[in-house]
């Protein structure tokens, strides 16, 4: 039986994006990835830290997502980490995205 605490776990769509990870594994991913976001001083540093781990950032359906470098597919929304584009932009500055032609309201972080 898994006990879910609302302030510690993401809502169900975030788990679905993470291919059904159990709550302990999801918590470890959050702790590990959140550190990268907290330590970044700008978008370039965050992008490089994520890229070294096979991840990237992209806009999908108008929201900021962690994406896979290999195929650009969504991994999880950044709200899974307890942040959002507005908070990150305030701290890291204005991001620059390259629009994707294959999807509406989509783009990939350049810097």
UniProtKB/TrEMBL annotation:
<protein>
    <submittedName>
        <fullName>Uncharacterized protein</fullName>
    </submittedName>
</protein>
């Amino acid at each position: 039986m898994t006990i879910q605490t609302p302030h510690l776990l993401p809502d169900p769509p975030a788990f679905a994006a993470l291919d059904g990870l159990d709550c302990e594994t999801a918590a470890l991913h959050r702790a590990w990835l959140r550190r990268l976001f907290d330590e970044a001083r700008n978008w370039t540093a965050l992008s490089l830290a994520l890229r070294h781990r096979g991840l990237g950032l992209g806009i999908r359906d108008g929201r900021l997502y962690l994406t896979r470098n290999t195929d650009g597919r969504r991994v999880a929304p950044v709200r899974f980490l307890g942040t959002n584009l507005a908070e990150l932009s305030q701290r890291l500055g204005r991001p620059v995205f390259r629009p994707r032609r294959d999807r509406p309201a989509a783009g990939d972080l350049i810097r």
